Amino acid sequence: MLKKTIPILIASFVGFFLILSKFSPGLEEWDSKVSTWFDIVAAFAMVLGATSLLSSHFKKISNKKPGWAYSLITIVAFGGTLIVGLGKIGVPPSFPGYPWSGDYMTEGGAFWWVFNYVYVPLAATMFATLAFYISSAAFRAFRAKNVEASLLLITAVVVLLAQTSSGPMLTEGLPDEYAHFKLENIKGTLINLFNTLGTRAIMIGIALGVVSTSLKVLLGVDRSYLGAD
Amino acid sequence: MRIIFRSTVLMLMFCGLRILSAQELQPPSNLEVNDVPNDAGVALELKWKLSPDDVEGGQNPVIGYRLERKTDPPDPPPETEGESTSPETEEPQPDEDGFLEIKILVAGTNSHTDENLDPKKNYTYRLTAIGTDDRTSEAVLSIPFSPVVQWINTNKLWFGFLMLVVCGSVVVFIYLAKSGRDLKIRKVAGLEAVEEAVGRATEMGRDVLFIPGIQDINEIQTIAGLIVLNRVAELTAEYDAGLDVPTTRSLVMTTARETVEAAYIKAGRPDLYNPEDIYYLTDEQFGFVAAVSGKMVREKPAACFYMGAFYAESLIFAETANTVGAIQIAGTAMPSQLPFFVAACDYVLIGEEFFAASAYLSGEPQQLGSLKGQDLGKLIGAVLILVGSALFTLSSLFPSSGSYGRLATFLKETLLGS
User: Fold this and answer.
1) What would the pLDDT profile of B12-35 be if each residue is shown by its tens digit?
2) Model confidence, pTM
């Protein structure tokens, strides 16, 4: 009762109230208020997340599991970033006499330095690997094994060629009456017509799926995500 | 004598010209204030008749209008940070009558919407025409007016009606299914393969990796992913396979722990449940990607499930797992990521299939009923698309008959508009 019924009642009340607020201008400010409440709850939950992270890595170190040195690096990085962020190390005060009054991301501060010179390059490196993964995925996806795969291959080649600067040059000699067959126009048709059609159909299905799942959650039809009684 | 006469005439002419050029501008008139409909009482619409001098090429041109507002009760002075403010940054103050300039409008403007108002206050407006050489007209005053809070947005009534029909059909089918009515649901290959994937992991003695997206618990895709996790965890409990659930949000971690624990209890294997299998890594997208990819390479999971909201990391996960030979099942409602999953995964739940997964896997009749309700929504969507296409085609074929165009506009702007 306490573990499932009351949370469902709260979720239903808040959920239906927020749906109503979308149709009532007088209630629309509640949307942002509830978002703020969520942020507050999520901030408290960060303690749980940090505890989980630290405990799992401390266990790896104490048990000397393979790769425990990486856990040590994680803990040192976590602690170091936390200290420079909370301590606002290297951040000049905004008001004289108030040493911690500066913004933690002030340029030149230690946290700013860690973010810009450690985190951003690392994140960019991970993001950059995507280019190679796209190539390997495209290599597998575009193998002309059957009719459908061949169509996919031809479409991809046309769009890719038209995206390049030299692609449109291949068909620029076509007379105006055959302008539809210029590479850039074929690409436009493929993207704006066929691609948009498919995407919109998927979006309609997604919207209906969201409605159905939300109703199941709000009406308590599916309670599996709430845990055991 | 003649010189004196000429000088007098010239002086009179000069004075006449000065008087003519210094004459006051004629003011605007009929300053009306009306409430803006369908808002939360935060805006007023002002309309007025232009000054008779507001004509192009006139001798005494109006170059603009000064709009001022008096607030009753007055707004509190803005809060300033620090001990002192420089004169350049000082906020403008109301004059002795309590009016504060809010806008200078260009000549020819005869309306303005004043926004960010408070419905608990009265507002009086003062409008003055401005001419060249800093000349101004007499001011025209409005009556005091207070914006009104509207409780129903009439622009959204049709949208609300359509939403009620779709939601109502979902609810009706849920209750029909509960009453024992047989509902036929087509097979979804990706969902049929869930058991196969878990079985494969069991045979290989490796873990099942489940990623419930990278969004927080307020995202419906994350909820849908956790519902699927419940069914997958039931299977891993039954098969005694290892389960690994890295999360990118603390709240998702706590909810996932509850979900998995419930699944293990339901499967009769609470002893196998280990909360540390569900853990938090980081909120940062590429930090999470690095951690999960590294885990994939080191531990080589036999089956990978990606169920939730994904962005650029989708292909990195799917390709990394592909290199370690894992069977992969993905489900997402992010259209931009679907091609990546389709290219790299063995099975993909596209959009609505992902949301249908929980009902499908549970097999509970009331949940299957919700899928039938969705079908009615699709039928309504298809009918509206066909009717709309027909109306727009007819309106372009027969432009002289305005009724097709009006109906098409009604369908687009009113029925399906926001």
Assistant:
1) 454 444 444 456 789 999 999 999
2) 0.84
Instruction: Out of A204, A205, A212, name the one closest to residue B370 (CB).
Output: A212
Residue holding tokens 């109906």? B407
Cross-chain CB nearest to A130 (options B231, B316, B366)? B316
A224 with B259: Cβ contact below 8 A: yes
Residue A176 C-beta-side C-alpha neighbours within 13 Å: 0
CA atoms within 13 A on the CB side of B176: 16
| C-alpha–C-alpha distance, residues B68 and B72, integer Å | 13
Looking at beta carbons, which residues of chain B come within 8 Å of A59? 276
Distance in angstroms (rounded) separating the CA atoms of residues B114 and B160: 29
What residues have CB less than 8 Å from B226, skipping those under 6 apart?
A224, A225, B212, B252, B255, B256, B259
Would you give the distance in Å from CA B343 to the centre of its chain? 30
Nearest Cα residue to A126 out of B287, B151, B212: B287
**What value of ipTM does the predicted structure carry?**
0.90
pLDDT tens digits, one per residue of B155-199: 899 989 999 999 999 889 888 888 887 777 888 888 999 999 999
CA separation for the pair B410, B102 (Å, rounded): 37
Interface probe with A: pick from B370, B375, B384, B385, most Cβ of A within 10 Å: B370
Residue B193 backbone class (left: φ over 0; alpha: ψ -120 to 50; beta: rest)? alpha
Which of A25, A214, A215 comes nearest B150 by C-beta? A25
Residue of chain A with shortest Cα separation from B381:
A204
